[in-house]
Design goal:
This protein is an all-alpha fold. The chain is built from 6 helices and 2 strands; from the N terminus they run αββααααα. It starts with about 30 loop residues before the first helix and ends with a helix.
């Protein structure tokens, strides 16, 4: 994003708005129009990261709910169970999962031709489910004789750890983006009034058109 810009004469006692030397992140462009564009870019980045954080949090909640349901299934823990239509998975958890996650998509295994819930075969996110095609197999057909309930739970633990790491990274990115945007916004606010008039006076003394700088 850093732009190469020409240096202009500026007295040491004067800072134009906002001061590029005070901005602790990327080097700011010199003119106000490009600085405003930079602020818009930071807002877009913030929104993009917020969307990714929200998506990761939703998937992590789903994976956690599946893990809790499989725990109940493994230890045959007592509790009220729903009577929703189970899929062909030996470890279908649709009747044990938190009610808000009970409406899950299904697909037909390309090998055994049976119907399975996406979450019962390790497809949790929208991106995961978008990869399902007519040639997609269930876990039992992909890993014959290997996918026990214990194996599935170990897999869930790995998925959770991966999601938690991804979420942590995105949260750091979000925090940095917010700090950048807020810092630049504060600098714009502080640049009003007397400082702006000094800049206009300086530009006129240099024979510059102030209107061109504002555009």
């Amino acid at each position: 994003m850093t732009e190469k810009t020409e240096k202009i004469f500026r007295p040491k006692s004067f800072s134009h708005s906002p001061d590029r030397n005070d901005f602790p992140f990327e080097e700011l462009p010199l003119d106000l129009k490009k600085q405003k564009k930079k602020l818009t870019e930071l807002s877009d980045i913030e929104k993009s990261v917020e969307d990714r954080v929200e998506a990761l949090e939703t998937v992590l909640q789903l994976v956690t709910a599946v893990d809790v349901a499989l725990d109940r299934l493994e230890v045959n823990r007592p509790g009220r169970r729903r009577t929703d239509q189970q899929c062909h998975s030996d470890h279908c958890c649709i009747n044990l999962i938190d009610r808000k996650f009970k409406d899950q998509e299904t697909f037909i295994c390309a090998t055994c031709k049976e119907e399975f819930h996406t979450i019962c075969c390790g497809f949790f996110s929208a991106a995961d489910c978008s990869l399902i095609t007519s040639s997609t197999k269930c876990q039992a057909c992909r890993f014959p004789g290997q996918f026990s309930l214990q194996h599935k739970r170990r897999h869930i633990v790995k998925v959770r750890k991966t999601l938690e790491l991804m979420l942590n990274e995105e949260m750091i990115l979000l925090e940095n983006a917010q700090i950048e945007k807020e810092t630049l916004q504060e600098m714009f606010q502080q640049s009003s009034g007397q400082t702006l008039r000094e800049m206009e006076r300086l530009m006129r003394s240099m024979g510059c058109d102030c209107r061109a700088w504002y555009q």
